[in-house]
Write a structure and sequence with these properties.
It is built from ten helices and eight strands. By secondary structure, it is α/β, with parallel strands linked by helices. It has a single domain, classed as Alpha-Beta Barrel (TIM Barrel). The protein has an eight-stranded parallel barrel with strand order 1-2-3-4-5-6-7-8, surrounded by nine helices.
Amino acid sequence: MIRLGVNIDHVATVRQARGESYPDPVQAAVFAELGGADNITAHLREDRRHVQDRDIELLKQTIKIPLNFEMACTPEMVAFAIKIRPHAVTLVPEKRQERTTEGGLDLKSAFQGLKAAVDTLQSRGILVSLFVEPTEEAVEISAKTGAKAVEFHTGKFCHAIDAAGSTLDKLNVLSSLVKASKAAASASLQSHFGHGLHYGNANWLQMVPFAEEANIGHAIVGRAIFCGLEQAVREMKSLLNDPKNFPVPGERYQK
């Protein structure tokens, strides 16, 4: 089964647009949990553009499923994570001018800082995942940090598979995720996936061997406007796991 992590950042985005106390991302997390979410993901950005410190604190106190805390690799955020003790931390790159995370970590230049953060967090019992590009090189470097998981940035994959005109073209696009996930398994790393996944492409993850988790927010929050959050979560989890939504009959995995 592919676990579904529901990212509630964009609920906070709507709240912050008006400076009100609603909609409450913690309440959204509860509805996501009722819909079958396996974990809740929230990104506390350094500029606090959407999720706030108090949201993370209340999420940790309220939800019954694991909290995946997305954060930049900075001393401030490492200290906050140690204080909160989420189930998992995903270290991501941040740029103040970006609307959303645009790519994976620069593993080579940031290696020493990442390794130190991984050591510190995992010594406190917090599983650490690194947000990386879906390449075998990224997997190799990630393994050297001691992290337990990688989350593959699926933005480019999603744009490419959405644009592909045939099943064969889509399978060719998928091959990069397949290779990266196999490399992660060989390095004893969990394979997670996130960014750009939506109701028209998430089912392709069913064809990726060793896929353990998908973290999806924008598409689910957008869908929830029309059908409610619980239903939106159920539909996404079905796309990830229900055989009836398998994209290509026949082979389980892309060879």
